[in-house]
Design goal:
It is a single chain. The protein has 2 domains: 106 residues, PH-domain like; 115 residues, no CATH class. By secondary structure, it is an alpha+beta fold. The strands form 3 sheets. A 7-stranded antiparallel beta sheet has the order 4-3-2-1-7-6-5, with helices on one face. Strands 8-9 form a two-stranded antiparallel sheet. A two-stranded antiparallel sheet has the order 10-11. α5 crosses α6. It has 6 helices and 11 strands. Belongs to the protein-tyrosine phosphatase family. Non-receptor class myotubularin subfamily.
Length: 248
């Protein structure tokens, strides 16, 4: 809150970028986590909320006879324009938003200031909202084709994967480790979805580090193990999303 120069500005107009002639008159509020615009129309009182961590840029434009325009660009490509009557108020809002949208410490992030209106027991229950073992059990694993591996215990191999993963029963720890070294961020192929009716599966992984011109014996053995764990099919699809690759 100490970074807010002015918490409330009245007589602000919200300009619809899709239809510039459409303007909504209301009040602009600045909080520690959101910028909120409330329309004055008593029968509607529509609110527009902008999360500060979603703001990618704030631009104060030259004033005109109608007021001082303030352009807010968001990371989801939304562009919001405010018309603030006084230039000094616009300057205060601009400086406040510029600082609030660029936290300097972890403690300034929204997740640390959010305080849900629930007691301690309810908050602790949220940690078990998703039970990974129960979800895999619902799908029908482990079974004679798939088993749990503790190779990623304490996130030793991949820090963006769960600590407990399911792999083909024929995939030994050396195969898992070798495959992880061949792929970006250590994301070796691991089970994501299993259909017990036809024993079909979907596995996830990241792209190879060295491109398709290089080979890795352990990674090939991992793919062969996945193939063997899908006895209902004679072939396997390998799908890659080119949008995930960096531009060169």
């Amino acid at each position: 809150m100490e970074h807010i120069r002015t918490p409330k500005v009245e007589g602000v107009r919200l300009i619809d970028r899709a239809s510039p002639r459409r303007m909504c008159l209301g009040t602009l509020y600045l909080t520690g986590t959101h910028t909120i615009f409330v329309e004055n129309a008593s029968e509607i009182r529509k609110e527009t909320w902008i999360l500060h961590s979603l703001v990618s840029g704030v631009e104060k434009q030259p004033p005109n006879p109608s007021g001082c325009p303030l352009l807010v660009r968001c990371k989801n490509f939304q562009v919001i324009q405010f018309l603030i009557p006084q230039e000094r108020d616009c300057q205060d809002v601009h400086l406040s938003l510029a600082r609030l949208s660029r936290p300097e410490r972890y403690g300034e992030l929204y997740c640390f200031s959010f305080n849900p209106k629930v007691d301690k027991e309810e908050r602790e229950e949220a940690w078990s909202f998703i039970d990974l073992k129960a979800e895999y059990s619902r799908m029908g694993v482990p079974n004679h084709l798939w088993q749990i591996t503790h190779a990623n215990s304490e996130y030793r191999i991949c820090d963006t994967y769960p600590s407990e993963l399911y792999v083909p029963r024929s995939a030994t720890p050396p195969i898992i480790v070798g495959s992880s070294k061949f792929r970006s961020r250590g994301r070796f192929p691991t089970l994501s979805y299993y259909r017990r009716d036809n024993q079909a599966s979907i596995c996830r992984s990241s792209q190879p580090l060295s491109g398709f011109s290089a080979r890795c014996l352990e990674d090939e053995q991992m793919l062969e193990a996945i193939m063997k764990s899908n006895p209902g099919s004679q072939f396997m699809y390998v799908v890659e999303d080119d949008r995930c690759r960096p531009s060169w």
